[in-house]
Amino acid sequence: MLRTLLGEMPRQNSGLLQEAMETMFQTIHLLHRKIEKDNDPSHDFRKLEIWTRGLVSSLDELEQSWYAACFFRKSVKAGYVDDMNIQEQSEYARYIYFYKNGFIRVFSILDKLGTVLDNLFDLQTSKVKVHYSYFTALRELHNLKQYDKLARELTGIKNDYQGPLNVLRKRRNTEIHYMNAEMQDDLWQRHQGLNGKIELEDLDKSLDDLKQGLDMVCKSLIAVFLYANEMWAKMG
């Protein structure tokens, strides 16, 4: 959708994004077959199908946010906020909008995946923490021991992306709980020299962190839904 609005060609899925999408669509297909076979009187499989479709949509929106942030970043040439003309300020504001939308969605998707994990494997994570995160559900998956292979794979993915995830988490928490994330850098610079110009953060580094977050999300989704698909296949 955003590519069309930006005058670009529609996206052709490839790489991790394509694999994640296809794995989740396979899950939806398996759930449909299960619902048709057993009528799903408890609506458990229907609920999982809706959650999976929601994750497909959320992943699509995350990738689009990253792409749009990259698109508008290209128009930001100045190294300081004070040196931007009106047009460049507008492009920078658009970059900020989609960049923030992206890093918020990284953790939104992970927490939705935590809910799926909790229900798929009956982790009962809410007994540990009522409003739990993906990372809490992952710890409970480890504690259960029954799905140790998946728990180890997901933990490995989390550890591989620990650096960029920490950066994105700090920005997400600042944005939601304290102040606009981009203004935290401005405030620090004001403390360093009240009369100095505000230097832009490293936009390329920020976008790379967001891309790493997108990749981490894709790999985690692939691991969970591939495991579920194989589990159901073995069960017939």
From TrEMBL:
Superkingdom classification of source: Bacteria
Domain Cthe-2314-like HEPN: 51-228
Pfam families according to UniProt: HEPN_Cthe2314
This protein's name: Cthe_2314 family HEPN domain-containing protein
Species this chain originates from: Paenibacillus mangrovi
